[in-house]
Design a protein that fits this description.
The complex is a heterodimer of chains A (291) and B (310). Chain A has 2 domains: 15-51; 54-287, MetI-like (MetI-like fold, Orthogonal Bundle). In chain A, 73% of the residues lie in helices and 0% in strands. Chain A has helices at 13-48, 54-58, 71-102, 108-120, 125-139, 146-170, 174-182, 187-215, 219-223, 243-252, 256-287. In chain A, helix 7 (174-182) packs antiparallel against helix 8 and helix 8 runs antiparallel to helix 11 (256-287). The longest helix of chain A has 36 residues, at 13-48. Chain B has one domain: MetI-like (MetI-like fold). Helices cover 75% and strands 0% of the residues of chain B. Chain B has 13 helices and no strands. Chain B is flat, with a radius of gyration of 27 Å. Classes of the chains: A mainly alpha (291), B mainly alpha (310).
């Protein structure tokens, strides 16, 4: 009597092949991004390194590539960073505290607030530029100044700061709040002395990442008038430029030398961003607590 | 004694502090004001876009805006049909999706179903770096590296072309699509996978027939948000795709998009109140409405998978 042999092998060879092919496809999907990233970095380095010198850091822009630098742009970016830190972080953390600690989750206006922030996070950055053009530059008559640029970038990254801060605040266990209340603390005392200190690492990480995002933005700054020839150091209420804008200006010129100069400025910009990102990750790993 | 008891009964002990603590009230009000900033932003955007747009449509009939096929608002013989810009936007978006959708989903499946925890913990943040590179840098890369590369490959592309801008944008969007899709896949209960494995399914079958269908609302959300990002992306298009507004579906040629037009027109000293100035807002309003619809759809789908599994 012949017993039909039952194969206990996991798969037929066809299925194994399909599984392998699928796996290869997935690995390819993940790799393609990194291939592009590495190519981009190598390309920018090869083009930009020869121009990465003192002229770039300390000289104003010029029509002659050899003498053109990015000092006003670098200073402008540092200016913007400082202004963002004082504007975006307090407002963002304040909003997060209101939503997490004070607002009742079921009230319709709080749900609408939530939806509003989620949508704002996905509004194209150039639309913020239009807002800046209409209200800050023309409407308020602020003009094309550093402050207007900083305000628009603040509104742009506010949703990122809010979402990150909310997550950090939510991660603080309720038992800590209850304990403080039991000792007679008021709500604000609980927030200031217990919740905020515990949530600071998460808030700081999120804020730095948001700042990094803002520093790389170009489109909204174009609309608030940063795309002008600025040969002097920026002031709060004067015309300004920033690194991404300077990069765009150099790319837009037809001469090859200016493109190489743009590559050098890109190296500076990426160095700033990578430092900020690395710092944020370090901060998270160093101070984050698991409750 | 009895009378005292009676008074105690009449006036229960108050555990609250006498009077209101004004500092507490002030703090709550200040925090509430912070929250109002984001509301004011939305209102501001809508008002900023609507007012000049209404004035624009007083001068240019809305029918011409949507049906005319000629966009040349700054010319002596002006044309005000937005269709070339919309078509340009959609063509760039299409090529970005060709890259971002399959590879974003592939990355998500790999991270959620195949990668070991340690590999995943390093790959995920590394992938996020892609999303953190400024778009002006991607524009530079598309113009000075990718377009020449396409040329070397024998494609007859111009200095400015839609294909290069779209493909580079697609790679930039991979982390966006991957991150939300992976989030949804991780929310699929392990029981479903175990059940399928128990029935003898392979990893390929579990991934494609269990996890992907179960996470489909999250994947849709990721795709819709990716499209929204592609529609609103400015710098890559402005730098690498050119600024010529015309209707063509040939990706080897240059085209302008809504965002590129806004950025290119908003730079100059366009006098306030001129028709050219108002076109910025009319185009901006169209762009805002398109992305708003996409965003609301995406938010809805994200909520859906969160409701099901969390």
């Amino acid at each position: 009597m012949s017993v039909p042999s039952i194969s206990l092998r996991r798969q037929s060879s066809g299925a194994a092949f399909r599984g392998g092919a699928f796996y290869a496809l997935l690995v390819f999907s993940v790799t393609i991004g990194f291939v592009l990233l590495v190519t981009l970095l190598v390309d920018v380095f090869i083009k930009g390194v020869p121009y990465l010198d003192g002229v770039l850091f300390f000289d104003p822009p010029s029509a002659i590539p050899e003498r053109a630098g990015a000092r006003p742009a670098i200073l402008g970016t540092i200016f913007l960073m400082g202004l963002l830190l004082v504007m975006a972080v307090p407002i963002g953390v304040g909003t997060a505290l209101y939503l997490e600690e004070y607002a009742s989750r079921d009230a319709w206006y709080n749900r609408l607030l939530d939806l509003n922030i989620q949508n704002l996070a996905a509004v194209p950055s150039i639309v913020y530029g239009i807002l800046g053009l209409a209200f800050l530059v023309r409407g308020l008559g602020l003009g094309r100044v550093t402050l207007a640029g900083a305000m628009i970038l603040t509104l742009l990254v506010l949703p990122i700061v809010i979402v990150a801060s909310r997550e950090a605040i939510r991660a603080v266990p309720d038992s800590i709040r209850q304990g403080a209340y039991a000792l007679g603390a008021t709500q604000w005392q609980v927030i200031r002395r217990q919740v905020l200190p515990a949530a600071i690492p998460g808030i700081a990480t999120g804020s730095i990442l948001a700042l990094a995002r803002a520093i790389g933005e170009t489109a909204p700054l174009i609309l608030v008038g940063a795309l002008t020839y600025v040969a002097f150091n920026p002031t709060l209420t004067g015309p300004f430029t920033a690194l991404p804008i300077q990069i765009y200006q150099w790319i837009a010129r037809p001469q090859e030398e200016f493109r190489l100069l743009a590559a050098a400025a890109i190296i500076v910009l990426l160095a700033i961003l990578l430092t900020m990102n690395a710092f944020a990750i370090w901060l998270r790993n160093r101070y984050q607590r698991r409750w | 004694m009895a009378s005292q008891d009676a008074t105690l009964g009449a006036q229960p002990l108050r555990l609250r502090a006498e009077g209101r603590r004004w500092s507490e009230v002030v703090v709550k009000a200040v925090l509430g004001l912070c929250a109002l900033v984001s509301v004011a932003t939305t209102v501001g955007i809508v008002v900023a876009l609507l007012e000049p747009s209404i004035e624009f449509f007083r001068e240019i009939p809305i029918g011409e805006f949507f049906t005319s096929e000629r966009w040349a608002p700054l010319f002596a013989n002006p044309g005000y049909g937005i269709r070339p810009l919309v078509v340009g936007t959609l063509v760039v978006t299409f090529w970005a999706c060709v890259v971002a959708m399959p590879f974003g989903l592939g990355s998500a499946i790999y991270l959620s179903e195949y990668a070991r925890p340690r590999v995943r913990a390093t790959l995920k943040p590394a992938l996020e770096v892609l999303a953190g590179i400024p778009t002006v840098v991607y524009g530079f890369f598309a113009l000075t590296f990718f377009t020449p590369l396409l040329e070397d490959l024998g494609l007859g592309v111009g200095t400015f072309n839609v294909l290069s801008a779209g493909l580079v944008m697609g790679v930039m969007l991979i982390p966006t699509v991957a991150s939300i899709s992976e989030d949804a896949m991780s929310a699929v209960p392990q029981d479903l996978r175990d059940g399928a494995y128990g029935l003898g399914a392979s990893r390929l079958q579990v991934s494609t027939r269990i996890v992907v269908p179960a996470a489909v609302s999250g994947i849709v959300a990721a795709y819709v948000l990716g499209i929204s990002r592609a529609i609103g992306e400015t710098m890559i298009v402005l730098i690498a795709a050119g600024q010529l507004a015309r209707i063509t579906f040939n990706p080897l040629e240059q085209m302008s998009t809504m965002t590129a037009f806004i950025a290119a027109t908003g730079t100059g000293d366009v006098p306030t109140g001129s028709i050219a100035y108002k076109t910025i807002f009319a185009v901006g309003l169209t762009l805002f409405c398109m992305t708003l619809v996409m965003n609301l759809i995406a938010i809805r789908f994200v909520r859906k998978y969160r409701e099901i599994y969390e």
